[in-house]
Amino acid sequence: MAKSVKVYSTPTCPWCIRAKQFLQENNIDFQNIDVSGNQQAVDELMQKSGQMGVPVLDIDGEIIVGFDKERIKQALGVS
Amino acid sequence: MQIYDLIIIGAGPAGITASVYSARKKLNFLVISLDIGGQAAWSGDIENYTGYQFITGPELAQKFHEHMRKYDTPLKENEEVLELKRLNGVFLVRTNKSDYNSRSVIIASGKRSKELGVPGEKEFKNRGLTYCATCDGPLFASKDVAVIGGGNSALDAALQLVKIAKQVNIVNKTSALGGDAIMRQKVEGAANVAVFNDSQVISVTGDKFVSAIKIKDNTGVKNLSVQGIFVEIGLIPNSAFAGEVEKNNKGEIKINLRNETSIPGVFAAGDVTDVPEKQIIIAAGEGSKAALSVFRYLAINKF
Lengths: 79, 303
Fold this sequence. Notes:
The structure holds 2 protein chains of 2 kinds.
Chain A: E1 5-9, H1 14-25, E2 31-34, H2 39-49, E3 56-59, E4 62-65, H3 69-76
Parallel strand pairs in A: 1-2
Antiparallel strand pairs in A: 1-3, 3-4
Chain B: E1 3-9, H1 13-24, E2 29-33, E3 45-46, E4 55-56, H2 57-69, E5 75-77, E6 81-87, E7 90-95, E8 99-107, E9 111-113, E10 129-130, H3 133-136, E11 144-148, H4 152-162, E12 167-171, H5 181-189, E13 193-196, E14 200-206, E15 210-217, E16 220-225, E17 228-231, E18 235-237, E19 266-268, H6 280-300
Parallel strand pairs in B: 1-2, 1-8, 2-5, 8-19, 10-17, 11-12, 11-17, 12-13
Antiparallel strand pairs in B: 3-4, 6-7, 7-8, 9-18, 14-15, 15-16
Helix pairs in contact in B: 1-2, 1-6, 4-5
């Protein structure tokens, strides 16, 4: 079954753009959560990751801070 | 092990432009970089890159990336070069993941943000303290923030933040803001900006996240209540891995007009070098010049 993937991002952060691009290249469906001006989403991001940097990826509950390609690949099970 | 004609270290404006020229010269080459777009991707609004009267940093970086991908350039992304050395007539480029061999190298690894070096900085990094207003600025909607610095990058950060944050405090070490007059006027004209000149940061405090910053000026110590801190106090070159290459006192790699370094076969381009003026357009131009010099070097040495 496909994993649930959420990306907490801002429209201007280069690593967010790369992370989303990477998911698209691997045909992974994901929900993009734009945290800019959305305090509820910011709170969720802070609570899940304990920090305030973007992007944060939530892959079936596994929290990955930053565009860490290797960890993302591992969590998704893609090569 | 495979020996490349060329390895380009870095994929900012200089590295990417070098890659486009190298691809068009049909060199057998590789690009190794931690990120894509370099500092250009971190910039806010860009109004001085010819051909674009207005473009944002992330958009320009995206254009650069697309241009590089057009040539199916082999790219090792997310890899950090740790060491560059000569070994049996070829260059060894060691990264955090692998070793690569090449006949020539272009160092285009750019610069990174300088740190404040004050208590609390490390603990609160990404917990309210950041070095990238473009990336993290939107998280601070309706919050009080501080921008540390007084040059163009600090002004750029402040201009991005005045549209987002409630109050923007600029903490500047010198007696007046520097940078371009046009940007300074915009910052000084904003209603929600306060400038603290002659002020040094002493410490960053908070609980789980940043809650305040302590600054000192001629009159004493002040506590500014802020939830976000944007450090924009300048840059240092990413040149430590190139131990054998000659550098200036700022750690910038010395180059000549052909982008040659002190080691034959090693070229450098962009902000990591001692080229006067650091601009996206200059870095791009330097990248093309370095690639053409490499092409010449390989031809002369009959590789």
